[in-house]
Write a structure and sequence with these properties.
About 25% of the residues are buried. The strands form two sheets. A five-stranded mixed beta barrel has the order 1-3-6-7-8. It folds into two domains: about 140 residues, LON domain-like (Archaeosine Trna-guanine Transglycosylase, Chain: A, domain 4, Roll); about 80 residues, no CATH class. It is globular. By secondary structure, the protein is of the alpha+beta class. β6 and β7 form a beta hairpin.
Length: about 250
């Protein structure tokens, strides 16, 4: 697997022109500041990945509309001319991610690691010219309301405590997790990490993705975690909500 350097972990919005490759999935909501491993095997997404690796490495992780409405389109396929095709509708909010490392397997498939970079809103899906979908998007910036500045530290402390209470005991006491939560990470980063880790339904996860008011996002999380059942002890290293932490 190819390693990454510090440039792979940054996003230069001054060079971003708003056109993205769409990677729509039905049950994965990606957020900024988190990493997600993916196995790429469908031909259309192999084409998407190869183009990304040859250019900016960016992929917009979008979410299929649970209603599964189909969008009729016309696609030009070689000498056959315009052909009718259908595309499942995607929700208007997505996470712009960057491929930070990749490994090509003997069968031509890829294992990749995607780092979430920014929230985006999809305003126009482009006419299909490739096997994969493309869209024009706008960056969606996080913001914090100045009138909430004095209460934000208490809000972050409450969110951190509730997150630890929601985790199975063997995970909440993990040194790597404890160290992460004890550092002074911004509330925006904490909310995205918790949103990704918690086993919320797809509607709640999408609500958290589209909410760019950081304080409001934290309150949504607190309310959503209050609705979760209490965690029960699990057996095995893959139990609970979070993947295993690396000790390296």
């Amino acid at each position: 697997m190819l390693p990454w350097d510090v440039d792979d972990l940054t996003f230069d919005e001054t060079r971003f022109r708003g056109k993205v490759r769409l990677f729509p999935l039905p049950d994965l909501v990606m957020y900024p500041h988190v990493m997600q491993p993916l196995n790429i095997f469908e031909p259309r997404y192999l084409e998407l990945l190869n183009e990304a690796l040859d250019s900016d490495g960016l992929i917009a992780m979008s979410v299929l509309n649970p209603g599964k409405k189909m969008l009729p389109t016309q696609k030009t396929i070689g000498h056959m001319g315009p052909q009718s095709t259908d595309r499942p509708e995607v929700l208007p909010h997505a996470c712009l991610g960057k491929v930070v490392t990749h490994q090509r397997k003997e069968n031509g498939q890829y294992n990749i690691l995607v780092l979430g970079m920014r929230r985006v809103t999809i305003h126009t899906e482009l006419p299909p010219e490739r096997s994969f979908r493309q869209a024009e998007v706008n960056l969606l910036d996080d913001f914090c309301r100045p009138e909430n500045d004095t209460d934000r530290a208490d809000l972050q402390a409450a969110l951190t405590q509730r997150f630890q209470e929601c985790l199975p005991e063997e995970q909440s006491a993990h040194p790597a997790l404890s160290e992460m939560l004890s550092t002074e990470i911004p509330l925006s980063v904490l909310t995205d990490l918790v949103s990704f880790a918690m086993p919320f339904n797809i509607e709640t996860k999408c609500e958290l993705l589209r909410e760019n008011d950081v304080d409001r996002r934290a309150w949504i999380l607190l309310e959503a975690m209050d609705r979760l059942p209490n965690p029960e002890p699990q057996q095995g290293s893959q139990s609970g909500y979070l993947p295993p932490f690396s000790e390296n």
